[in-house]
Amino acid sequence: MGFRYIVEHMEEDEETSKAIPKWVELEYMHMRTLAGSDAHVHFTHLSTSSCRTLTDLFSSSTGHGIAQATAESKPILELMQGLSIPMEKVCLLDPKAEKAISPEDGDGRFECFLFGVRDDPPRDRTSELRVLGFPTRHLGPVQMTTDTALGVTKLVVHDKIPLSEIPYIDHPTIVFNPKESVEMPFRYIIENGEPKLPPGMREHLHEDLNKSFDF
Ligand SMILES: C[S@@+](CC[C@H](N)C(=O)[O-])C[C@H]1O[C@@H](n2cnc3c(N)ncnc32)[C@H](O)[C@@H]1O
């Protein structure tokens, strides 16, 4: 059994009836690929409707090389109780942690790696998880998207690549055409000279840009 990656949904505007935003859906789908086939990704603290949407999406997209995934309305502590996972086996990825993540953190010390979901403008939402008392690790000084944070953690703890050897790009500008572009306020893994975005994210960002000019 590989690692468990837990993504606690922390968006404030989440009501029970509200569907998850498209960008969250795209990031969540990307995390299954980034986590790899021997992993399990748990998406916790979701509304009932988001659980339904994601469960349908997960069952319709199975394939080689992707992690098992489950969407649940339970928050993290209830999930851990149900799976009998003790607090000290869960590592919270926290930008304010004292220690950076290292390949040794994948040698049995931890069973699970826990992430919050981004919010923009950046506020310290990870603090809501920090107060629960998990051991913590950081991923460097620049804020990453949650899918990037999960992907980088996997490269370090599973593939044993030191944090400093992963190629990054900070705050990239995504250019759609000579007149339209958008700057992303995060750090990404760089692959073939491009930031590694979730499939479909580029198109989604472009549509979103057009929508905001649609008076
Ligand atoms: C986009 S970040 C959320 C940022 C948000 N402003 C906060 O700190 O609460 C989403 C998650 O990715 C992880 N993350 C992103 N960048 C990180 C970094 N440099 N070090 C550690 N964790 C990071 C954390 O688990 C964080 O909760």
TrEMBL record:
Pfam families, sorted: SFM1-like
Signal peptide start and end residues: none
An annotated Gene Ontology molecular function: protein-arginine omega-N monomethyltransferase activity
Protein name according to UniProt: DUF431-domain-containing protein
